[in-house]
Amino acid sequence: MAQDGSFNPDDHAVFTTDRADGRYASTRAYLHHIMKAREPRLKYNPAMSADSMKLWQSDMAQTMSRLMKHPDRDLSSLPAPVLVSEEQRDGYTLQHWELYPFDQAVVPFLVLVPDAVNTNNPATGILCIPGYGQPKEFLIDDNNPHAMARLYAREGYVAVVMDNPGQGETGDLEREAGKGVDLVTVGRQLLEMDWNYLGLSSYIGSLLTDWMKTQPYINPERLVVSGFSLGAEPLMAIGLMHPEVYAFVYNDYLCATRERALTMTKPDNRGNRPWPNNIEHLIPGFLLEFDFPDILAALAPRPLICTEGGMDRDFYLISGAYEKAGAPEAFEYHHYAKYADPSTRTYLEAAPEGINRDEHFRLANVDPPHHYFKDEFILPWLRHILSK
Amino acid sequence: MAQDGSFNPDDHAVFTTDRADGRYASTRAYLHHIMKAREPRLKYNPAMSADSMKLWQSDMAQTMSRLMKHPDRDLSSLPAPVLVSEEQRDGYTLQHWELYPFDQAVVPFLVLVPDAVNTNNPATGILCIPGYGQPKEFLIDDNNPHAMARLYAREGYVAVVMDNPGQGETGDLEREAGKGVDLVTVGRQLLEMDWNYLGLSSYIGSLLTDWMKTQPYINPERLVVSGFSLGAEPLMAIGLMHPEVYAFVYNDYLCATRERALTMTKPDNRGNRPWPNNIEHLIPGFLLEFDFPDILAALAPRPLICTEGGMDRDFYLISGAYEKAGAPEAFEYHHYAKYADPSTRTYLEAAPEGINRDEHFRLANVDPPHHYFKDEFILPWLRHILSK
To answer: With an 8 Å Cβ cutoff, are B25 and A189 in contact?
Structure first.
């Protein structure tokens, strides 16, 4: 308590107890310590051999499949996707398609086919997954200078664009009411059915990945998944579950989500220590198995670019995995421009407990106002890895 | 859309689609229909035989155990609870105890031992579980005219009082900051660890139930669980998992929670159709197995009182189960005073979709301002069933 009697968050940044036996009466506090004591079962171990790493990767993939709980119905047992309409755009054809993943559902998606592509000259196919609040149309918007799918089409790649569930055309009353996106209710409904939001988004992405392999103008040996922000999560799930995907564009800061949850314990002025994200990010048990850096490490030796920084510790971990897999050059990462100079970055083996969101971003070398699709890094990198 | 262009919730009360194939693009809408199509596996079937009902009850108990995920450590493998202090109150001794369910945790609880009780005269023991926002001390408060535990002690019963996790002494910064209870973060943290809030609260309640059986001044043949509001949820879990509990006081309206979630689809003025409750009520997969009325039906033939109404349909269902179990007199229920006259109640086989919270309460015969511990029904009922 501050001297004037008001509540001072800094006095309560970490959990404390004044009991001689060290026990906590606060449920939030003791759960924190229980969670902290449970290291993820499949945490990447830099000391493992290359052979052990392959077994670990197989376990990673199986565990991700178990957590994602995709329905048994694969693309071949669903109604065939339908091309609804197409129109010529500047340098590419924009196709509007529909996928029918459930009896009750239609899931629209877009396909951008560059003019130079034809079945005699199949192209790289890139699955594009937007960020929170972005409809898929934002990724082709001429007014968006960093329009992921439009820029890929200009490069000559076939871009397939999905909505995150509950966004864009798959939203509920957003357009009528003018309200913001609500993924919490969709997330809740999925969790009630023993599923989860990432399970659904990765199922749709997985079906589209399979669909791309059947399209004659796409080279099935050159599939790429490109996720922005929220879309980087299905990228990770699809990555582990689809060994045939050739390369990955991870466009967000690399977040150690378990550590973030265990360190962002500083309360706000009202004494609230909220969880760092909403329940569309909740997959029960996920953090008992692995965290994001482990998942990216398990993608080795497949080409991977990370474009918006994070903790160097985590990049060293992933680099180590790529080296062990014999492909050190297949992993590339970039920090935000603000932290491009190594002397400006924070280097930590472990983030400290008792921080808030701003402090977390600072320690993770994140520059939130400059969160956008980093075509300046991604397009040259793709040209390079696809020229091989 | 209303004619003036503003958003009118009544126009969107239920999910609609203008597609000829009946499919929904809205994720929220198609998930609604998927969930609706999945009837709970263990839904009570009034047509089953008395023998089938016993097998069904066994399946209900096993399924509840699976969902509650209690740790393996039972009372005998934990440090013994400790009596910290005691003081004489008006007609009873108030004992402050501590339970140690995890290495990192202390969970305080209260025991009220009436003056007339001793080991030669062991008494009925009642586990008392408060509602949302109520510390356990509210249940003994002399200024609370409906103080559950104090009133039980006055009747000569030993009352054992726990906090719901994250409330009262087990809260985090509420006292320092003066903020309200936050069970959402505690619930989230549990879900991240593949557990759930009800799993934790019922684990603590379960340990205390086992502890009560070891106390020489409690008659282990006369254990009662009494839950108010939020506390009625652990009552249900403990009820199925502890066949040795003799009777149950369910002090809330009887809510068909699955139907509530599937019918409260009317948006607010911002177009939001929120889930009816917070994630401290979320148990992934629970509603695929059963709903509250099924659980109460599975308590037959053990004495049960419901004190704050609900839909007559659900009370008929439970009455039918008690009749089948050969104990029709063991189930008693009361409506709110406002709906005591049968002609004032709504009778529905199924609630309609497209309602909001107020409409739900009206159709379920609920009078929210009069939500309190109904000692006027409960105390006479307990005297009656315990005199047998």
So the answer is: no
Instruction: State the nearest Cα–Cα gap between A300 and chain B, in angstroms.
Output: 27
Min distance B149 CA to chain A CA atoms (Å): 22
| Partner-chain residue, chosen from A1, A21, A24, that has the shortest CB–CB distance to B176 | A1
* ipTM metric: 0.97
Question: Between helices B197-213 and B50-68, what is the axis angle to 10°?
Answer: 110
d(CA B384, CA B388): 7
Q: Do A271 and B28 make contact, defined as CB atoms within 8 angstroms?
A: no
What's the 3-state SS for chain A? CCCCCCCCHHHHCCCCCCCCCCCECCHHHHHHHHHHHCCCCCCCCCCCCHHHHHHHHHHHHHHHHHHHCCCCCCHHHCCCCEEEEEEEECCEEEEEEEECCCCCECEEEEEEEECCCECCECEEEEEEECCCCCCHHHHCCCCCCCCHHHHHHHCCCEEEECCCCCCHHHCCCHHHHCCCCCHHHHHHHHHHCCCCHHHHHHHHHHHHHHHHHCCCCEEEEEEEEEEEHHHHHHHHHHHHHCCCCCEEEEECCECCHHHHHHHCCCCCCCCCCCCCCCHHHCCCCHHHHCCHHHHHHCCCCCCEEECCCECHHHHHHHHHHHHHCCCHHHEEECCCHHHCCHHHCCCCCCCCCCCCHHHHHHHCCCCHHHCCCCHHHHHHHHHHHHCC
CA of A126 to nearest chain B CA: how many angstroms apart?
Answer: 23
DSSP SS3 for B335: coil
Mutate which of A8, A104, A136 to test chain B, going by most B C-beta atoms within 10 A?
Answer: A104
- Are the beta carbons of A26 and B284 separated by less than 8 Å? no
Nearest chain B residue to A258 by CA distance is: B192
Query: Do A24 and B105 count as a contact with CB atoms less than 8 A apart?
Result: yes
Nearest-CA residue of chain A relative to B7?
A177
Residue B5 has a pLDDT of: 63
Q: How far is B51 from chain A (nearest CA, A)?
A: 30
Instruction: Tell me the pLDDT tens digit for each residue of B112-141.
Output: 999 999 999 899 999 999 999 999 999 999
By Cβ distance, the residue of A100, A189, A288 closest to B31 is A189
CB contact under 8 A, B28 and A274: no
pLDDT the model gives residue B178: 77
Number of neighbouring beta carbons within 10 Å of residue A118: 12
Grade residue A3 by pLDDT with cuts at 50, 70 and 90: very low
Q: CA B268 to CA B291: how far, in whole Å?
A: 26
**Sign of the CA dihedral with A213 first, then A215, A216, and A217 last:** negative
Contact of A268 with A284, CB cutoff 8 Å: no
pLDDT at A180: 79
Query: Crossing angle, helix B50-68 and helix B232-241, to 10 degrees?
Result: 120
User: What's the pLDDT tens digit per position in A9-61?
Assistant: 999 999 999 999 999 999 999 999 999 999 999 999 999 999 999 999 999 99
Q: Which residues of chain B have pLDDT under 50?
A: 1-3
- Judge: B176–A28 Cβ closer than 8 Å, yes or no: no
Q: What is the rounded average pLDDT of the residues A329-342? A: 98
Cα atoms in the 13 Å half-sphere on the side-chain side of A160: 27
Query: Angle CA(A48)–CA(A53)–CA(A55) in degrees, nearest 5?
Result: 125
* Beta-carbon separation of A200 and B27 below 8 A: yes
What is the biggest distance separating any 2 CA atoms in chain B, rounded to whole angstroms?
Answer: 77
A·B CB contacts under 8 A? 211
Interface contact flag, B173 A271, Cβ < 8 Å: yes
**Residues of B with CB below 8 A from A100's CB?**
23
Give the pLDDT confidence score for residue A121 in this predicted structure: 87
Chain A residues near residue B105 by CB distance under 8 angstroms:
23-25, 27, 30
